[in-house]
Write a structure and sequence with these properties.
Strand order of the largest sheet: 2-9-6-1-5-3-4
CATH architecture: 3-Layer(aba) Sandwich
InterPro entries: Alkaline_phosphatase_core_sf
Organism: Halovenus aranensis
Strand content: 15-25%
Number of strands: 9
Protein name: Sulfatase
Helix content: 25-40%
Largest sheet: 7 strands, mixed
CATH class: Alpha Beta
Number of domains: 1
Number of helices: 12
CATH topology: Alkaline Phosphatase, subunit A
Length: 284
């Protein structure tokens, strides 16, 4: 299995599915898309790490980002007040020609995420950015939770809300309520729960139906919603691709774990197959 070679490969449009593991993708993709599929190894087990290790130089890319970690705010990942928990001094605006914050203008408050159709809408609304750049990336939030059929996603909403608050320079300078809470409490909580499978499950439980968990277990309930989220995204992508002029690749930034080796969801520098093995589909 070769490395992802995200930038070294030839493409005009790259559609990035957030937290999409290879095995689930390979089981369902051909119901929606035609192409040549490979299993490749990501350079990171989470979005911040993938961005930090993949986008290392200056790139003439128009990046349509549904993920708040890749944004146009000019804030390094290690300074984000919520959700990053990393030491990466990486800023999207220093490496990408233009970042379009779909996580802001394409956000759905009811779903607490960016639905896939809003990526396409933003793409058509910003054709000037596409024409000026050499290549274009659309970074979808699915199959990453929140799960669209459930609505009212909680965890991602907190990340998005925390990052958004830092647009206010005075709030960043003064610390702000969110900053104070994060600085004072969060490190202590993380220290106590670091490496705990129970702690990792807790974040996932926020997105699940308790009835489904009782009936099918955490893994069964989560994987069913995860596959459904992927199918929703693939359906939207299948509608978009015929309208794109150029070579198209569908891939992922990293995968998702459902209890393998005691890991749930995805975490920085956690190098297990469910998180590192991602699809690389060259569309015919």
């Amino acid at each position: 299995m070769e490395d992802q070679q995200f930038l070294e490969s030839e493409w005009d449009y790259c559609l990035v599915l957030d937290a999409c593991r290879y095995d689930v993708f390979s089981d369902v993709y051909d119901e929606y898309l035609d192409g040549t599929l490979e299993k490749r190894r990501s350079l990171g087990s989470s979005t911040p790490e993938w961005a930090y290790r993949t986008l290392t130089e200056d790139h003439d890319i128009a990046y349509f980002s549904g993920n708040p970690f890749i944004n146009s705010l000019g804030i390094p990942l290690n300074e984000l007040k919520w959700g990053a928990s990393c030491d990466y001094e990486w800023t999207a605006t220093e490496h990408l020609a233009e970042v379009i914050d779909v996580w802001k203008h394409g956000w759905d408050d009811d779903l607490a995420t960016v639905p896939p159709e809003n990526l396409a809408e933003s793409l058509w609304d910003h054709q000037d950015a596409v024409e000026q750049a050499d290549r274009t990336v659309l970074h979808y939030m699915q199959p990453h939770a929140p799960y669209l059929s459930r609505g009212k996603g909680r965890k991602l909403k907190q990340i998005q809300k925390g990052i958004r608050s830092q647009e206010d320079a005075e709030e960043v300078a003064d610390g702000g309520a969110l900053s104070s809470l994060s600085d004072a409490i969060r490190p202590k909580v993380e220290d106590k729960l670091d490496g705990s499978a129970l702690a990792q499950k807790a974040g996932l439980w926020l997105e699940l139906d308790p009835t489904d968990v009782v009936k099918n277990g955490t893994r069964g309930a989560a994987m069913a919603l995860y596959e459904e989220n992927l199918r929703i995204a693939l359906e939207a992508i299948a509608e978009l691709i015929p309208k794109l002029d150029g070579d198209v690749v569908v891939t992922a930034d990293h995968g998702e774990a459902f209890g393998e080796e005691g890991v749930w969801e995805h975490h920085i520098e956690t190098y297990i197959p469910p998180l590192m093995e991602v699809p690389w589909l060259e569309i015919e």
